[in-house]
Design a protein that fits this description.
single chain, 79 residues, Translation Initiation Factor IF3, four-stranded mixed sheet
Amino acid sequence: MTDWDQVLDCEGLLCPLPVLRARKRLAGMAAGQVLCVRATDAMAAVDLPHFCGQAGHIYLGARGDGAVVLHLIRAGAAG
């Protein structure tokens, strides 16, 4: 069992693409659902929390999975 409802593969994508794709995916998710963004760009660790703060989502943190970092975001009411 996973800790998320949907996965978004952003491996190999550079800033700002992980944020733009996360924004689009979160727009279609229900409030409270969790999105896992798989990213390899180090800037995602800065950009995704900042985006969440601006857009009303909750950045739950990140964890490593080899060369990929899994960023977990809980969709806010605006999602």
